[in-house]
Amino acid sequence: MNQDPFQEYMRDSEPDKRKKGYAWRTGIGLQAVDGLKTSDYLLHTAVRNIEGEITFQEANALLQSYYEAHPSSDFEDRTEEADKVSIRIAELLSEKAFSFTPQEYISIHRKLFAGIYSHTGRLRDYNITKQEWVLDGASVLYGSATELRATLDYDFSEERKFSYKGLSMDEIIRHLAVFLSRLWQIHIFGEGNTRVTAVFFIKYLSTLGFEVANDVFAENAWYFRNALVRANYNDLKKGIHETTAFLELFLRNLLLDEHHPLRNRTLHISWTSDEAKKPDIETKKPDIGAAKPNIMAGFLPKTAGNIQKLREAFPEGEIFGRTEVMKVLGLKASGASELLMKMRKSGIVEAVSGQGKGKYRFILFS
Predict the structure, then answer these.
(1) Among 197, 215, 219, 332, which residue has the least CB neighbours within 10 Å?
(2) How distant is the alpha carbon of residue 313 from its chain centre?
(3) 337: burial class by Cβ within 10 Å (0-12, 13-18, 19+)?
């Protein structure tokens, strides 16, 4: 099946189909924040729902039956999670019901991850750190476990009191970026914070009069998460300051239909404005063989070719594991594991924490 069957619905369809097409595409696209991919079965189910053949309730039931009949034996395979969360996001975005409260925020987590996480809808009772590619392995300072609810209540209270009256659109977007970044930084759940925050924020925007019906979230979910990271990180000794500038560009594209380039490499803390003077290589597929000749020279031609295929399949820091390697290259589990081990030892990929066991992403080479 076409890997993006939703474009035609978002462009030329009647309003109901267009809205559902946007909701489905956003739900599926948001899985990228955790390096997850959905199945072809989900796409087929989504099209049936958009066409009005089945309801969301029936789509959920079909998906449940599908995975009961096709259980995965690979603990690293999170396709079922991606499929189930995608359909739940699509359903929530298709509903008008919403209340701007901490309870609504927590409820969204419960609705998205019921039966997937054991801590669904519960605030975490432990402190966390997460190694971030965009920070060279450093972590954002997340909310303290002992103060999560108080901090959440405070941020909601402050936003509820805030008046947008008389503000320019630039000022509105800047304020929304600050509110969004602070809400995300609390990170009240053990897993799933970015997806919950995105869904809540999209629904909140509709109460402010914004009609979010484009593909900005779907196509730039990884950028969205990296922008939230950069909005909450300081390293003053290195001259790095938290900034909502990247998040504001994302919101301008989302809300004003502007077309700012959203490139993940520009968010990395080692990137400088001098890079903008270099040729734009993003229109080409990265050639890691040319970028790191000494590293690639240590592999046999077939292995080097497989690494190149993976680099093209998982660009811009996209997260993958053994299951994805098996699918892209047609390898067995042992062969995929061996290749991942070789790439990690050679410094071509790095392990990613907080995304489940055995997850990696390519290290960007200058």
Answers:
(1) 332
(2) 17
(3) middle
Mean pLDDT of the chain: 87
For the record, the structure tokens of 125 come out as: 């009772």
The pair of structure tokens assigned to 240 is 């790095």
| Closest among 265, 231, 268 to 248, alpha carbons compared | 231
Backbone angles phi, psi at 60, to 5 degrees: -60, -40
Question: What stretches of the chain show up as alpha helix (H) in DSSP?
Answer: 7-12, 15-29, 40-50, 56-69, 79-94, 102-113, 148-161, 169-186, 193-207, 216-219, 221-230, 245-256, 288-291, 293-296, 301-313, 322-329, 333-345
In the three-class reduction of DSSP (H, G, I as helix; E, B as strand; rest coil), residue 206 is classed as helix
Q: CB-based contacts of 201: which residues, under 8 Å, 6+ apart?
A: 180, 183
Q: How far apart are CA 361 and CA 359, in angstroms?
A: 7
CB 134 within 8 A of CB 267: yes
User: What are the structure tokens assigned to 109, written together?
Assistant: 């987590």
Residues 6+ apart with CB under 8 A from 217: 26, 29, 30, 198, 202, 224, 254
Q: What is the mean pLDDT of residues 284-293?
A: 39
Per-residue CA distances from 246 to 69, 253, 259, 275, 291 (Å) = 43, 11, 13, 16, 27
pLDDT score recorded for residue 3? 54
Contacts of 269 (CB under 8 A, 6+ apart): 134, 135, 136, 230, 233, 235, 238, 240
Q: What angle do helix axes 322-329 and 333-345 make, rounded to 10 degrees?
A: 110
- 198-222: per-residue pLDDT in tens? 999 999 999 999 988 778 999 999 9
Express each pLDDT in 19-40 by its tens digit: 899 999 999 999 999 889 899 9
CA-to-CA dists, residue 139 to 107, 130, 136, 352, angstroms: 27, 5, 9, 12
Please give the residue that has the higher pLDDT: either 250 or 17.
Answer: 250
- Report how far residue 222's alpha carbon sits from residue 29's, in angstroms, rounded to the nearest whole number: 9
Kindly state the DSSP code that residue 359 receives in the 8-state scheme. E
Contact between 77 and 323 (Cβ < 8 Å): yes
pTM above 0.90, yes or no: no
Average pLDDT over residues 260-268: 93
